[in-house]
Amino acid sequence: MGEMSQVPVELRISASPVPYPEAEAAMEARVAAIRAGTAPELVWFLEHPPLYTAGTSAQPGDLLAPDRFPVFSTGRGGQYTYHGPGQRVAYVMLDLKQHGADIRCYVRDLEECIIQALKTLGVDGERRAGRIGIWVAREELGREDKIGAIGVRVRHWVSYHGISINVSPDLTHFTGIVPCGVTQHGVTSLKDLGVAADMAALDRALKAAFEQVLKITFI
């Protein structure tokens, strides 16, 4: 996305699950502050309590269990997603005018951050044409499973929302939706793949990937 950012980006890691409305309000406030020049750019690592979110392309029929967990409509792109304990969410608030001003390139860079972080932990994450997110080939099962999701929103060139990576969530929680509208593939996690890495290990790998791919320097 261009040269190394000259202005350090704040990295925030929340130790306890953050309610979705609280996180969304915080993102809205931070986006406004970044636009106004009163706060630095921010990458926020967190977990949420169990919930479903509906992106701007969500189809009502893809919400299979509407009473299972709270459902939140959100302005990010994409369809239905699950968030919950054991899943690392990274909300990325950057002034894209300072990072190449290319939204398509930015989304691809977020994909690359997931791929590189997973590679550090010994997992081959891959893109698939026509499918959003990062996938793992499960040759022993004869299928491909999704391990990382992407859903972004950009307002006046400031990005928010971001990515999620499954570390050790309860994978049965995904059965209440058709994740991202994809019915013919499954969902996996580091734990499901037999990888012993914990959230802290993923955080280290993801931080390094953000620095390398997005060319940013963390405070």
Describe the structure.
The protein is of the alpha/beta class and 219 residues long. It contains three helices and eleven strands. The protein has helices spanning 20-36, 103-120, 199-213; strands spanning 10-13, 42-46, 51-54, 71-73, 80-83, 87-93, 126-128, 131-138, 143-155, 158-166, 186-187. Strands 1, 2, 6, 7, 8, 9, 10 and 11 form an eight-stranded mixed beta sheet that branches. Strands 4-3-5 form a three-stranded mixed beta sheet, with no helix packed on it. Strand 9 (143-155) and strand 10 form a beta hairpin. The chain is globular, with a radius of gyration of 16 Å. The model has no long low-confidence stretch (mean pLDDT 92).
Give the number of helices: 3
Described by strand count, sense and barrel closure, the largest sheet is:
8 strands, mixed
Query: How many E-type strands?
Result: 11
Percent of residues in helices comes to: 10-25%
What is the N-to-C order of secondary-structure elements (H for helix, E for strand)?
EHEEEEEHEEEEEH
Strand content: 25-35%
Rg on CA atoms, Å: 16 Å
Beginning-to-end CA distance, first to last residue: 19 Å
Q: Structural class of the helices, strands and pairings?
A: alpha/beta
Basic shape: globular
Summary, kept brief:
This protein is of the alpha/beta class.
